[in-house]
Each structure stands twice: as structure tokens, then as C-alpha cells.
Amino acid sequence: MSIHPGTHADDLPLHLRETLKRAERLEYWNIFWTITIVIVMGLVLGQSQTMKTAWIEDTLGLVPPIAFLVAARMERKGKRSRKFPFGFERVNGLGFFLAAVALAATGALLLWDSTMTLIKAEHASVGSIELFGRDIWLGWLMIGAQVYAMIPPMIIGRKELPLAEELADKLLHTDALMNKANWMTGAAGVAGIVGLGLGWWWADSVAAAIISFDILHDGMKAIRSSTAELVDGTPRALASAEISKEAEALEAALKQRYPGATIRLRETGRLIRAEVHGCLPDEPFDVNGHWPGKTERNWRLAQISFVPASATDAGDV
Fold this sequence. Notes:
By secondary structure, the protein is an alpha+beta fold. The chain folds into two domains: 2-230, Alpha-lytic protease prodomain-like (Up-down Bundle); 245-313, GMP Synthetase, Chain A, domain 3 (2-Layer Sandwich). It has helices at 14-43, 49-60, 63-77, 91-119, 138-167, 170-180, 182-197, 201-230, 245-257; strands spanning 2-3, 128-131, 134-137, 262-268, 271-277, 301-307. A four-stranded mixed beta sheet has the order 1-6-5-4, with helices on one face. Strand 4 and strand 5 form a beta hairpin. The longest helix has 30 residues, at 14-43. The chain is elongated, with a radius of gyration of 24 Å. The model is unreliable at 312-317 (pLDDT under 50). Keywords: Membrane, Transmembrane, Transmembrane helix, Transport. The chain crosses the membrane at residues 28-48, 54-72, 93-112, 132-151, 183-203.
């Protein structure tokens, strides 16, 4: 027996639909500012390994917002059909996984490249360019580009975090954390360029390796969390691969309400689905009354399925 409310994006509470629209608008701005950063960084790239790595990371920054926008559109516009009877509520998790794989793979390749450059002791040089009739060290322009690349992501990341938490959206949350922590990449990039200016040939490759490791770390952490959803694992927290507090509270509440039953929870996008094995539901049944947290968060519990101890007693409603 299954009891579930609507699970389409349009079935979400009105305030959440508005939050989702705000998140989409913010991601369009995110894409715009990221493109400007990619252009500015590309214009002053030079031979610096640090700048090349930072430029690739900034370009990769387009992946999460694009994936979020595609997933949000499919979640909202996609209709159930014979081929997709459950709709597209898990497309967000798929986008999260693809973005995570792209991050991890690129981070690993860049880390290998910068490490080999360091081992081979390849010396990068930063020359000068003529600007307004004067010779200017290209490093100054690189530093300016790095500083500019730090500002928009920090602002956008801070605005994304509360929206991601309200929507329980891991893809948006990962994008927010990457943007918010972008100052680390900028600081490492500036240090590498200054090091080259001081004649420390190794500073460029070390800074590139630090940035590459940061990309790899973000990707691996996101992969652990995204794969848990794809293989029907217990719902994970937004910021880690640990079981979410809401899932733990729901499991405890269901165990208390149905003693002796086996409780299984899984996540489909931003929604949680529960299975109660070994008993039948209460009469009358109120699905919203099973949510242990704040009332405004009970939309997360999309379905409760009951599996009786005897298969002959089972039925679908």
C-alpha cells in the first residue's frame, strides 16, 4: 500500500515554487558573471600554469548552474508518460552526479599536469605587454583578473546557500559552496603569479596543484553524495555524504509509530520516500502527520509505502 501526495514540481508549496524561480534567476546571473570572468582570465592567460588551471576551473564553474537550470526546467515542465511513469523528479540528482564527475575528472587531470610540470622543473615566464604606449608586466594584469574572478562568485555563493537549504537542493548547494570558497583559488593564483615575479619558478606549479586539488576534492565529495541517491541510499546531508538529520528524525519517528517494522528511506531529487515493512498503516491515515520536523518542511515526505509481513495481504492504493 502506498500513500503519497503530488510529486510534480508544481505540487510543491507556493513559497517553494517562488524560491525555485529565484534560484533559477540567480543561476542565470551566475552564468553571465562566470562568462565575463572566463573572458577576462583568457585575455591575460600567458604561459602561467596557475592562470591556465584557474581559467579551466572558472570555465568548469559553468557546469553546475547549467545543470541546475536544465534539471529545474525538466522537473517543472516534464510530464509523466509511459516511458517515464514517475516523471523527472530525479533529474536533479542526475545533473548533480554528472557535474561531480566532470569536476573530479578535470581536477585529477590538472593535478597530474601541474605535478609533472613541477617534477620536470619547467620554468614558466611572465612577459610584458605594451599598453597605452607603456610596457606593463603581464603579471599585474593577471593579478587584477584573479581579484576580479574572486568577487562575483563570493556574492552569488552567499545568495545561493539559503535558497539551496530551503529547496533541499544538493546541486545548487554544491555550486554555492564552490562559489563561496572561490577566494581560495584566487589567493593561490595571486601567490603563484607573485612567486613567478620574484623568480620562484616552482611557485606557479605549486599554486596550480593547490587549485587542482581543490577541484578534485570538490568533485570527489560531490560524487559520494550523488551516487548515494542514484543507488537509493538513505538521504544524505546537503554539505556532506553523511545521513541527513531530517532522514534520521523521520526514521526514528516511523520506528516509534510502527514498532517492530523495518524502515527504509530513499531520496528522489529533493523529496524523501519511505517504506514501512512488516505492518499496515493507521486508519485514518495522515501522511503529513508523519513528518517529525517543522510543518513547512513536510513537503519533503513525498510517499510512504507499507509492505505487510505476508505478501498475500499486500495491495496497492
